[in-house]
Amino acid sequence: MTTEPSLANLVVKKNEPPVGNYLWEDPPDEDKFSACVHCGLCLEACPTYQELGHEHQSPRGRIHSIVAVAEGKIDINEAFEDPMFTCLDCRACETACPAGVQVGALIEEARGQVRQARPLKGWQGLVSRFFLRGVFPHTKRLHTLGMLTKIYQKSGAQTVVRKSGAKKVLPDHLGAMEAIMPDVGRPVLKTHPERIPAEGEQKGSVSMFTGCIMDVMYSDVNEATVRVLTKNGHSVEMPKQQQCCGALHVHAGDREMGKKLARENIDTFLEADADHVVVNAAGCGCALREYPELLQNDDEYREKAERFAEKVLDVSKYLYDYGYRAPEAELRKRVTYHDACHLAHGQGVWDEPRDLLEDIPGVEMVPLPNADRCCGSAGIYNITHPDMAGRLLDRKIEEVPDDVEMISMGNPGCMLQMAMGVMNHGRDEAIVHTMQLLDWAYQLEGGETDD
Amino acid sequence: MTEKAEMVEEMIRQLGDDAVLHRKEDLLTYECDGLTVYRGMPLAVVFPSSTEEVSGVVKWLHEHEIPFIPRGAGTGLSGGATPFGGEVIISLVRMKRLLDVDYDNREAVVQPGYINLTLTNSITHKGFYYAPDPSSQACCTIGGNVAENAGGAHCLKYGVTTNHVLGLEVVLHNGEIVEIGGVPDAPGYDLMGLVTGSEGTLGIVTSITVRILKNPEAEETAMAYFDSVEDASYAVSGIIAAGIVPAAIEMMDEIAIQGVERATNPVGHPEGSKAVLIMEVDGIATGIEEQIEEMVSVCERHNVVDIKVAKNDRERGRWWANRKTAFGAMGAISPAYLVQDGVIPRSRLSEVLAHIADISAESGLRIANVFHAGDGNLHPLILFDARNEGETDLALDVGSRTLEACTAVGGSITGEHGVGIEKKEDMRLVFSDEEIERQITVRSVFNPHNLLNLDKQFPKPARCGEVKQAVGSGEAHQVAEQR
């Protein structure tokens, strides 16, 4: 069999206007995908392409597929859904892209279309709806879930489950997750007053976005963040009406709920009217900063979203830009730093957290090779795509230098994932948030020891 | 069972389920490489992980007379990895291991899917690097570099890929595995030279031994701005005439500068600059200062507006990132671009650039110029919008005309991007029909049934008078007339 090639037949005559097979609101934006010239510089930045080597599992390939649907060449089917959802939404491609193509936003828009065309069915749909619609949008229910977890841990039930091997009925990756679940404390949104004054001379005032996972699973990180901010002369306000940021919803293609949460948060924080909204969870911070993108077709909220997004800063960048004092006590630790994707690639924050850590006397920073490659957490990716998430986690942990004592980062999803990685590999590095290290260093100034 | 189904079943049997793509949706992303104006659908894409697997696949395809295309990262700019329709693509991206590094003999052995820049990154701690540095080096494969005989900014001093390849393992058209080269100046014909740059038409390279170089003791980089492309061109000629051998001299013109400044890696080129030169000298530390000073004074003689020397490696890195991402940066100012790859004698730079500017004005398409000025390798970037009826054809035509402008002054149609699909017909600008036929005869020795990268690189020899108008090659006219 040989083909009879004809050059003229291969020339792309005209790309049809992108109406194609996107039938719902918010289709992938033509202005965004037409900026991609197919150069391929994103390829080696993409963790899924590095693992699989498949073009359709690369940023440029995914955009190619998105355009193909827009042009009506392919349908929204399983074959389209797979690469859209195998993407980690880690944004490493956006750092690599010479033309500034917003790959993440395109993928999220495409996922919105996929979920409209192909709603999740069966138990997947049930679980997804339960969490995305039933729990996360309702702070009280989320806190109740946290409390139940706490009861599970404190009542001895966890010990019973772990010893009895009952968790063996869970799929492997969920069992591993159960094993690394941190001791759940009480959310700061419940325990702290609405306004916490600065210590000493007031240098600034901020509103704090507490996050869902962060506040339920890592309330100690939130407590540390409040202490570090107030210690540095910044008063902290915690608007009690704040909601989940909606990142998980947008990632999962539930744009409607994502937008609803966005509008509520915008109203809440604009009313509080602080100069800055600080966040210590990279995933949330990135989502909040992208509200204008999410609400681009909302005439009522577009401008408000822009005003709000301009205020949002990761806490490490806020401290770095608006004043902090290096701790005086020594914290003798060898530390490496892992870039959360949504901090480095999503918000362009690379050096600030590293500088904060380096400023702690006694801390020795050890570089982590490929520090900005995704650990596989990616929101709930490690639950939906355990195989790929596990491969990326293994690579990540294998590159952690042998002699570090702590791995610092700025995102709760990464913290859970890395804790699981350290456990699976039989290692004992402590997983910490950058704010926790700073907090400990300040506490040591009171004369405590660094054990 | 259909022919395709049988083939897919066999490939899965040989390579495994996850190493074969055959659904339309997945194949669609393989319809083109870095050149997007030509697209064709492959029959399947397969991902062998070893030389033996490549051999097995090739043997079967050969027996069943199914044409096949080796593919690296798919960053090529001439459509070398683009199917006409119905070929099987053999992707080599899963063969991406560094097999050996021999620092004493300054050699490294890599698999074809190994990334160009990764080699340098893997040996830099020992003070070594791999010299050929195409702008896509962060993502292109060394196998692809061999196929295209890739160049790069620093090829002015260090030569192109063929000057750095020492040995190859090749799977021939029937699946047979052979090794060529391996020792310097091997007796017999220079098969390495023949295979390097053969664009996948002579065999599939499955292992490559390359030369690695010791990092230069010192390097200095300067950036110079000019009020006209002419002044910058004369400065380039002046520097070479002064006897300096720069590691690189790169030029970007006004539109290119606008593009890179609006993209991801801006460096603050002054607005309104008509041309910028990035010049680098490297080598032993002694004399580097003098060379940079001499380059500065040559630029001054040619009305340089501003010139600065990189303060440190970080600044040098930023300048190179700005230059090396220039093609992709066109996305910031145009929905599509077509890049050409003409070569001209350095002394004719300003003349040819003026000619290209005329072509741009006549066609109404903007042309940005980003190129290796030091070795006269032009890269006119023709900016167009495929959504406008007929504009793709116009861009292709403009591309061919820029090549004619190059061959008219004794130049050539490709410096480093290869011929592929894109410049097949333009081969007639530099070769007569008879010369093309002779080369196809050589190809037939390795690729007798034209299954390996079917019909790439050479046009069908013109018979019955169907000769494309050939400019700058009187001979082609004569041959055509004789027929």
Automatic annotation (TrEMBL), chain A:
<dbReference type="InterPro" id="IPR009051">
    <property type="entry name" value="Helical_ferredxn"/>
</dbReference>
<keyword id="KW-0813">Transport</keyword>
<dbReference type="Pfam" id="PF13183">
    <property type="entry name" value="Fer4_8"/>
</dbReference>
<dbReference type="InterPro" id="IPR012257">
    <property type="entry name" value="Glc_ox_4Fe-4S"/>
</dbReference>
<keyword id="KW-0408">Iron</keyword>
<feature type="domain" description="4Fe-4S ferredoxin-type">
    <location>
        <begin position="77"/>
        <end position="109"/>
    </location>
</feature>
<dbReference type="InterPro" id="IPR017900">
    <property type="entry name" value="4Fe4S_Fe_S_CS"/>
</dbReference>
<comment type="function">
    <text>Component of a complex that catalyzes the oxidation of glycolate to glyoxylate.</text>
</comment>
<feature type="domain" description="4Fe-4S ferredoxin-type">
    <location>
        <begin position="26"/>
        <end position="57"/>
    </location>
</feature>
<keyword id="KW-0479">Metal-binding</keyword>
<dbReference type="GO" id="GO:0019154">
    <property type="term" value="F:glycolate dehydrogenase activity"/>
</dbReference>
<dbReference type="Pfam" id="PF02754">
    <property type="entry name" value="CCG"/>
</dbReference>
<dbReference type="InterPro" id="IPR017896">
    <property type="entry name" value="4Fe4S_Fe-S-bd"/>
</dbReference>
<dbReference type="InterPro" id="IPR004017">
    <property type="entry name" value="Cys_rich_dom"/>
</dbReference>
<dbReference type="GO" id="GO:0051539">
    <property type="term" value="F:4 iron, 4 sulfur cluster binding"/>
</dbReference>
<keyword id="KW-0411">Iron-sulfur</keyword>
<protein>
    <recommendedName>
        <fullName>Glycolate oxidase iron-sulfur subunit</fullName>
        <ecNumber>1.1.99.14</ecNumber>
    </recommendedName>
</protein>
<keyword id="KW-0249">Electron transport</keyword>
<keyword id="KW-0004">4Fe-4S</keyword>
<keyword id="KW-0677">Repeat</keyword>
<dbReference type="GO" id="GO:0046872">
    <property type="term" value="F:metal ion binding"/>
</dbReference>
TrEMBL record, chain B:
<dbReference type="InterPro" id="IPR006094">
    <property type="entry name" value="Oxid_FAD_bind_N"/>
</dbReference>
<protein>
    <submittedName>
        <fullName>Glycolate oxidase</fullName>
    </submittedName>
</protein>
<dbReference type="InterPro" id="IPR004113">
    <property type="entry name" value="FAD-bd_oxidored_4_C"/>
</dbReference>
<keyword id="KW-0285">Flavoprotein</keyword>
<keyword id="KW-0274">FAD</keyword>
<dbReference type="InterPro" id="IPR016164">
    <property type="entry name" value="FAD-linked_Oxase-like_C"/>
</dbReference>
<keyword id="KW-0560">Oxidoreductase</keyword>
<dbReference type="Pfam" id="PF01565">
    <property type="entry name" value="FAD_binding_4"/>
</dbReference>
<dbReference type="Pfam" id="PF02913">
    <property type="entry name" value="FAD-oxidase_C"/>
</dbReference>
<feature type="domain" description="FAD-binding PCMH-type">
    <location>
        <begin position="38"/>
        <end position="215"/>
    </location>
</feature>
<dbReference type="InterPro" id="IPR016166">
    <property type="entry name" value="FAD-bd_PCMH"/>
</dbReference>
<dbReference type="GO" id="GO:0071949">
    <property type="term" value="F:FAD binding"/>
</dbReference>
<dbReference type="InterPro" id="IPR051914">
    <property type="entry name" value="FAD-linked_OxidoTrans_Type4"/>
</dbReference>
<dbReference type="GO" id="GO:0016491">
    <property type="term" value="F:oxidoreductase activity"/>
</dbReference>
<dbReference type="InterPro" id="IPR036318">
    <property type="entry name" value="FAD-bd_PCMH-like_sf"/>
</dbReference>
<dbReference type="InterPro" id="IPR016171">
    <property type="entry name" value="Vanillyl_alc_oxidase_C-sub2"/>
</dbReference>
<dbReference type="InterPro" id="IPR016169">
    <property type="entry name" value="FAD-bd_PCMH_sub2"/>
</dbReference>
